[in-house]
Amino acid sequence: MGRARRWARSRLAGSGIEADEPVAETLILLISELVTNAVVHTGCPAVLRMLLPGVPEDAPRTVRVEVADTSARPPKQRHADGDDTNGRGLELVSGLADRWGWQPEGAGKSIWCEVDRCDPDAPAVAFDGVS
């Protein structure tokens, strides 16, 4: 998961989203959760994608994160009890992201989330990476 976090931090910084911005910290946490879930539940590497906001003022100011894996099984949000040490990943995603969902992708699926950004000055750039 460290590789996915480093990749995401460098892409966010390259788009003008500074590491100390709250949106960057939220996105890194979301990426970590989604990639961890994909790897833990499939045992295979995941593909991480980010779509960053664009610059005309009318462009969406939303950062979209997608994590594709090889399992066609739908994600299942659980509600962990107080002492449980796992089972909070999608609950955390649901609480931190402005929107999230999933869709079939090839033989597997892609789980996505979106976080709305306050700063309209970031360029529109799409990045693909593998963790």
From TrEMBL:
- Annotated stretches, region: Disordered: 69-88
Which Gene3D superfamilies does the protein's record reference? Histidine kinase-like ATPase, C-terminal domain
What would be one Pfam family of this protein? HATPase_c_2
Keywords of this entry: Kinase, Serine/threonine-protein kinase, Transferase
Q: Which InterPro entries match?
A: Anti-sigma-factor_SerPK (IPR050267), HATPase_C_sf (IPR036890), HATPase_dom (IPR003594)
- List each copy of the Histidine kinase/HSP90-like ATPase domain by range: 3-111
Q: What is this protein called?
A: Histidine kinase/HSP90-like ATPase domain-containing protein
Q: What is the species of this protein? A: Streptomyces alfalfae
